[in-house]
Structure formats: C-alpha cells, structure tokens
Write a structure and sequence with these properties.
By secondary structure, the chain is mainly α. The chain has two domains: 92 residues, no CATH class; 37 residues, no CATH class. It contains five helices and two strands. The protein has a two-stranded parallel ribbon. Helix 5 links the parallel strand 1 and strand 2. Helix 3 runs antiparallel to helix 4. The longest helix has 28 residues. It is elongated and about 45 Å long. Its cofactor is heme b. One of its GO terms (biological process) is heme A biosynthetic process. It catalyses: Fe(II)-heme o + 2 A + H2O = Fe(II)-heme a + 2 AH2. GO terms for molecular function: heme A synthase activity; metal ion binding; oxidoreductase activity, acting on NAD(P)H, heme protein as acceptor. It is a multi-pass membrane protein.
Length: 132
C-alpha cells in the first residue's frame, strides 16, 4: 500500500490514469448532453461545455508541465486549474429534468440518471417525452 503513495513512478502513473479517466468522462458527458440538448435546460448544456473546456485545459497544462520539465509557473497553473475543474464539476447549477421512462431507451435513461441531477423517472403509458 505504501508503494501507491510513496513511489514516484507509481504516483505519476496513477495521476495520469486518473487524469485520463477524468478527461474522457468529462468529454463523454459533454457529448452526451450535446446530443440530448433538447432534454436538458440551457444551464446544464453550458455547464457540460464548461467542464469539457476546463478538463481540456487541465490536460494541456499537464502535458506542457511535463514537456517543459516542471517549471513552477506551469505547475501552479495546473494545480489552480484542477481546483477550478473540481469547483465547476461540483456546481449546483445543474437543474432537474423530468423524463419519461421509455422501455426502448432504458439504458439511456439510466445514463441520464447517473450524469444529471434528475427527479425520479416517471412511468408513462405513452412513449412521448414530456415538453420542457
């Protein structure tokens, strides 16, 4: 267990893996919201775009920090941007959305529950989404 936190090579590997997962998940969420923008409020759409932008900036700063052999100013920007990414990701600006449970789109609705703060799904006999 000490090796995970004290070995510099392992720490750097873990940092890269978790950073890559964060980047991929934030971009995936933004693409998902973009494809379903008719279902979500404008503020959620803007929030997903902002998270993708800040995550992309974080990756760019991380790569630049390594390429230029860890100059202090870039390392500090990378740290500050990580706080910005965390703050934006925890934003309460993502409002609730009402969705109808569609049997054919069950998987998509489950994904929406995971990525958006939603009210419980309503089961409807019609297969139409409610108007926003």
């Amino acid at each position: 267990m000490r090796n995970i936190f004290e070995n510099p090579t392992t720490v750097q590997f873990n940092h890269r893996v978790l950073g890559t997962l964060t980047f991929i998940s934030s971009l995936s969420w933004a693409v998902f919201i973009e494809k379903n923008k008719h279902l979500v409020p404008r503020s959620t759409l803007n929030l997903s775009r902002l998270i993708a932008l800040v995550a992309s900036n974080q990756v760019g700063l991380g790569i630049a920090t390594l390429v230029y052999l860890v100059p202090t100013n870039l390392a500090l920007l990378h740290q500050a941007n990580s706080l910005l990414l965390l703050s934006v990701s925890l934003s309460p600006d993502s409002p609730s959305v009402d969705l109808v449970l569609l049997p054919s789109n069950l998987f998509i609705n489950i994904l929406k529950l995971c990525f958006i703060n939603l009210k419980p799904l309503e089961i409807s006999s019609s297969f139409l989404l409610p108007p926003l």
